[in-house]
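TL;DR need structure tokens for one chain.
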Amino acid sequence: MSKISVTPRELNTIRRAASKTGGVVTLRKKSIEEMEKELGLDKVKPMELATSDDQIAIEEGDCFAKWYEEELRELYERE
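>> reply
TL;DR here they are.
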């Protein structure tokens, strides 16, 4: 079985072609790092936090992580 990487847009076309030939296609979600690299966001440096902000982030965790992942996936799927 061969594996290739495709965008969600390409997936429907590939699934139609595979169904005609009896093939099966699955979609693997790309990691955040893979999407950032492909979109060129891996070169963006986060802004520095103040010491008080660091302490809040340590105590409460990253409250934006899930939101960031959802937005990044939505942006990636549009590309």
